[in-house]
Amino acid sequence: MHGLKNVVALMCGLLLSQRVAQAAVYIRQTYQTGTLTCTKFSTIGLPLKDDCAAALAKVAPVEPQACTKQFETEYDYVTVGTCTIHTYSTTRGMAHCLDGNLIIKGGEEILENCTSIIGDQEYTGGQYEWSTVGENGEGVSFIRAPLEA
């Protein structure tokens, strides 16, 4: 009888600890699927695919432990050549503190599915959104980097 009570107590403790842990974590889980849109791109054009692949290689696959920076709904995460990885978090204002795993996952989806060849160059661009709440959400996009003056 004591064995059964111990098993029940252990299971309840595990369930409780999972609920507490989930309540404290604000990062989206990487196994969720997102929405891919290939038609969204910068008004100044599309970035080169190789530049976006190089920029994506600079993203660390880590979850931020705490976000202490100020509220930001949009953030230019990293730029390489013609490509800027642009993140947004219109719901939570944490565009600068998003999970690197999600940025990488979204970036890979864009690279694999949103490419076009123009002349002898291969371009990419698009948006991958992993969280949507009404008109708000969180995601990543590849946009053309601003032209240097």
From TrEMBL:
Residues 1-23 form the signal peptide. Keywords: Signal. The keyword Signal applies. It comes from the Eukaryota. This is Cyanovirin-N domain-containing protein.
